[in-house]
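Deliverable D5.2: sample structural annotation.
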Amino acid sequence: MTTLRDPVHGVVALAPLERALLDTLPMQRLRRIRQLGLTHLVFPGAEHSRFVHSVGAAHIAGRLGEVLVRAGWRGDVRLLRVAALLHDVGHPPFSHAGEQEVAHERMSAAIVRHGEVGATLRAFGVEPDEVLAVFDPRHDPVAAAVVSGQLDADRMDYLLRDAHMCGVSHGLYDLPQIVANVVPTADGIAVRRDGLHAAEGLLLARASMFLQVYFHRTRRVLDLLLAEVLPRWPRDVEGWLSWDDARVLELLRDDPRPAARAIRDRRELPACVAEFEITADPGERAAAEGLAIALTEVLGEPPRVDSSARLVAFKPAGDIPVLDASGRTASIFTASPVLRRMDPDIELRRLYVPRALATPAREAVEAFQRRGAQLKLF
């Protein structure tokens, strides 16, 4: 048994198979991929990697698995931990900001099946497809919920870790109370009534981190710039694994394009000249499109548009069932008075322009609003 010291979970114990997997080159590559992409240019402490997040996810998956076994689940906690450990092995450079046509989940599956990771699993008597089956709710809905669901180990780790490393308190929630109150169900996992407010806290922490960190205006414009200068990733496993953050940054060092210079030097970032929320109301959406057109006419070029719809919604897809004393379950969005008031239809949108054009752009926004636009500008 190997132990690691983790800034979020303290002492984390690793089984021999997990240690062997961490020593494979695909997992070591995750040390060179930041968990939050370019977020360290806004929150300087956000230097943590996909590697340490994977260790944390495996640790939480094991804790959940042990409680679920005591509650009657007959699954394999070892496989649960291994699946959580490998869940991000196929991430591209700069994490989600680097996503392109090939989803990282698909590449992760290919990496698990072949090469050094697959060989390591087989050396310990585990078939790669056994690990991949953990993510399939048709195989075992309880296991799948632990590694990919509303109460999954991935989310439970990244919220605490991202908050800690960014130096904010928005992502904090009561992890021990959730773990103590999970129970297996025919469709996955639920929380007992005693765990309702802890699970509620996790969803509120997620929404708060979304607003304060993941959708921070400067962080998001850095993602937009990055998308303009990233190379196209190879589609084969060997080529994919040859890329990491450092290789991309080396390419950008001599790249003359304005977007590359802005990322490299963190200077002359585009300015946010309009920030507003829109609902499903057609009038609001028409006004948002109209403002973008008005800015294009004044500036001679379209603004960069960023929308929270491109990230996860405030109210996540899926549900967390809450189990009452009689054994009946209800949606957490019904059981929680706070969550009942969350509006899933709100979208935040921002318009960015070159910093040199910020003054005429802001004047154009003010003129547009004076004409009676319905936008709720911040």
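Annotation notes: Residues 210 and 216 are 8 Å apart (CA to CA). The mean pLDDT is 91.
The annotation will be released with the project's public dataset once the embargo ends.
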